[in-house]
Amino acid sequence: MNSADLTGAVWRKSSRSNGDANCVEVAFLDDGRVAMRDSKDNGNGPALVFTPGEWTAFEGGVVDGEFKRR
Questions:
Q1: DSSP percent split of the chain into helix, strand, coil, nearest 5
Q2: Which residues form the DUF397 domain (predicted)?
Q3: Calpha distance 60→7 (Å, rounded)
Q4: 8 A C-beta contact, residue 26 and residue 35
Q5: pLDDT of 66
Q6: I need a labelling partner for 39 at 20 to 30 A (CA). Which of 2, 13, 15, 60 fits?
Q7: Is the pLDDT of residue 10 over 70?
Q8: The dihedral of CA 41, 45, 51, 53: what is its sign?
Q9: Distance separating alpha carbons of residues 7 and 31, to the nearest angstrom
Q10: Backbone angles phi, psi at 5, to 5 degrees
Q11: How are strands ordered across the β-sheet holding 47-50?
Q12: 26, 34 in Cβ contact below 8 A?
């Protein structure tokens, strides 16, 4: 997906973000997909776009601790 397809996206950062430019932002798109990007690129960098099922699986992995460093 190119960045032009995300022109109207409303991007959000975590409320736990400390204000520096090293954050991940997400946008919940009208068609149910979820876009994710790195905030330090000032909206000019690439974005990953997930289907609703992919995003649900990601959320489940976070809750289950699947991504913890060991």
A1: 25, 25, 50
A2: 9-62
A3: 28
A4: yes
A5: 93
A6: 60
A7: yes
A8: negative
A9: 14
A10: -70, -15
A11: 12-13, 24-28, 34-38, 47-50
A12: yes
The CA-CA-CA angle for residues 27, 30, 36, to 5°, reads 20
Kindly report the pTM of this predicted structure.
0.78
The one-letter amino acid code at 70 reads: R
49's tokens = 């776009």
Coil vs helix vs strand at 49 = strand
DSSP codes joined into one string, 19-32? SSS--EEEEE-TTS
Distance CA 54, CA 34 (A): 9
pLDDT digits (tens, 9 = 90+) for 14-48: 777 776 667 889 999 999 999 999 888 777 888 99
With a CB cutoff of 8 Å and minimum separation 6, the contacts of 35 are 1, 6, 9, 26, 27, 29, 47, 48, 49, 50
Contact call for residues 48 and 35 (beta carbons, < 8 A)? yes
